[in-house]
Amino acid sequence: MNYKKLFAALLACLMVLGLAACADKETSEIPSNTESEAEKTKIVVGTSASYAPWAYQENDEVKGFEIDIWKEIAKRNNYELEFKLGQFSGLVGMLDAGEIDTVAHQMSITAEREEKYYFTEPYAYSYYDLFVKEDSSYKTKDDLEGHRVGCWLGGNGEATLRKINEENDLNFEVVTYDGASIENEVVIGRLEALWQGEIKTKTTVEENNLDLRQLNEKLVYEVNAYPFRKDDEGKTISEEVAATIKAMREDGTLAELSKLWFNIDTTEPGE
Asked: Are residues 177 and 46 in the same domain?
């Protein structure tokens, strides 16, 4: 028997098997695109898309300040982002039912909501105020006693308006809306006044050249943040989003987006 040839053949086989094993190891260590995509956290953001310029729909595309904030949050955290539309009054119910993960609709932090949800770092601050027709005689909330005042159904605006109405015995006829332009309702005379976040109202008035003016009583200060359900997943994601919003504030991204959509910076707390 030729032992040299046998030894050479065995050595060759061992080398082939070794190379194959190395190749298998290297292949197994490279994640596939499918595995990489599966690791992405999917976030479903609920919005009414009828609250320009915070969030609205144009030519089947969802746009606005809220939308741009969430696109930036998703980019920085490698989230898979989906926007789900619903009536504003139903968004909290959708959140509670697990149909969405959070709400993007200038949602205010309140004591009642903090008992139920984890809130992120605030991303916007503004006052609620009353707006009336430019040529009307109304100068204060008391001048509106007994008149029709509109607000958004089911939100902090409705809750605070009803509280102000009751505490001051104003006898307002509170008219609620869920998607319609409250500004136009005042312009055409269906309402004597509207109660809404001043940033949203002033932007709409300016963009559409509406004959409305602000009473400047600024009775309610609003702090906006994103709510998440109080479970382990909600806690984790709310903390991630809070850290991202903080970073966006520090690097100027939040202010840039605010100026883009409102022409002012509403992302820093006021006095």
From this structure: no
User: What is the rounded CA–CA span in Å between residue 147 and residue 193?
Assistant: 8
Same domain, yes or no, for 48 and 113?
yes
CA distance 143 to 92: 34
Per-residue pLDDT of 113-165, as tens digits, reads 999 999 999 999 999 999 999 999 999 999 999 999 999 998 899 999 999 99
The Cα–Cα gap between 82 and 46 comes to 9
Task: Determine the length of the chain.
Answer: 271
Please tell me whether residues 119 and 231 are part of one structural domain. Answer: yes
pLDDT tens, residue by residue, 24-62: 444 334 344 444 455 789 999 999 888 999 999 999 899
Which uninterrupted H or E stretch holds 14? Answer: helix 3-29
In a domain, 236, yes or no: yes
175 φ/ψ sector (left φ>0, alpha ψ -120 to 50, else beta): beta
13 pLDDT above the threshold of 80: no
Domain that holds residue 242: 41-123+225-262
Half-sphere exposure of 267 (CA within 13 A, CB side): 26
Question: Structure tokens of 142?
Answer: 């008391």
